[in-house]
Hints:
It is built from 17 helices and ten strands. It is of the alpha+beta class and 536 residues long.
Amino acid sequence: MQRRHTTSAPMGSWLLGPxxxxxxxxxxxxxxxxxxxxxxxxxxxxxxxxxxVTVVVPGPSVLTMEYVYVNFVAVPVYxxxxxxxxxxxxxxxxxxxxxxxxxxxxxxAADHLAAFRAPRRLTTVQGLLxxxxxxxxxxxxxxxxxxxxxxxxxxxxLTGITICAYCYLLSEFALRPIAALALEVGGxxxxxxxxxxxxxxxxxxxxxxIPILGLMLIAVFSFxxxxxxxxxxxxxxxxxxxxxxxxxxxxxxxxxATASPLRAVRAGMAxxxxxxxxxxxxxxxxxxxxxxxxxxxRMADGLRERERIRDLFGRHVGHEVAANALVSNPELxxxxxxxxxxxxxIIGSTTIAATRKPAEVVAILNRFFGVVxxxxxxxxxFVNKFEGDAALAIFGAPADVDDPAGRALAAARAIRRRLxxxxxxxxxxxxxxxxxxxxxxxxxxxxxEYTVIGDPVNEAARLSEVAKSAxxxxxxxxxxxxxxxxxxxxxxxxxxxxxxxxxxESTRIxxxxxxxxxxxxxxxxxxxxxxxxxxx
Length: 536
């Protein structure tokens, strides 16, 4: 059975594509989502570091001729070097390690672990490059003037930490399709990953903690090397501006990372509430939110299994009985009910079984019972039993219906018409009776079934035997006609009084009006009494 996802962006963003995307498109998409944002983020980080060193952070100026080679040769060369190394060593190696996800291969245990370590490994590469920048550029600036070392080291370190944290969040987002595949085929996510609390603390650190630390260090530098009030104001204004720009951006990233799984679960719950139990979520988050997504899928699986069991249970014992059993604790015993009983039995079933292959007999029986069940269900009846080549149907139990006798008589006439037209390989005798019967659970405490016991059941079975030689092969008891409404009773006519086998009193027999007419038109004189039905 195909599962339907709750939204058009099952992984929280249209940028990540559908979950059933081809491996080639997935590889290209992940490569672009990893490379482009990381390159842009690191480039912006480098520009911010340059601005902080040259304009914002108090200390000796680096905009003099002594630093011309460092500023215009060493710094640009290292930026280009870091970009090239980051792309080739970082993203390409990462894609190579995750090739199983882009070739539809089954991941090994190591592949599964690598899928969740990928953001951390990529961030480690970025951290090494920023760490190398801290060592190389601080050394080069220190060769010119040792007094400039503190502010250069401070600026590169603080900027590098911020950019690496951004890279972690962006790479985690870009690698959601890989994480979803790993969670689908490789089990739960490893424990050492960022949860909601860790992500929240990281966002606070980047958006608030580091800017505050920067302001504090600027104050420290101003004490070590006094600066003008205008310079100090510029420094505070610049750091505050960076915090105001990137703080909301970080908050947006955090909120979207938290809200996307929750929105997916909410949409899935709405689909389930509407009755769509084939809904499922793509699990791409390894935090508590991912556990929520997996919990939803387990819930949906349980509901599908419960519905399947309910359907199978209903097919075996009847949907009304199944519904009653599910809402209450069924117990042995029963109650008296005014019911109508329809019994239908194939004529000449022994001959059919002897002259046809077993598979053909089963096919005929299935078509035969298909007609019977359809007409009985349409009129609110309950097929209580299939007995080989016969079926017993009840109207008025277990569910109350208005005019049970009229419904049973109408169903019997409809069954006779459809069997004549749709199941030409066989015919059947149909008997309808009505009266008081006991309906309930019969058997033992370990195993019981819902059934109806009483005179109407026995009478309907005997009438089906009489019907096999009656016009139209359909008869009903006088009690059934008396209990039915006039709208149905007018379709029937009294035929004879018959003493049924095992009974002490005669039963008033009626047949459909159209059966009398067809007998007369068929060339057999209608004497008013028809064939002798009393020799039973």
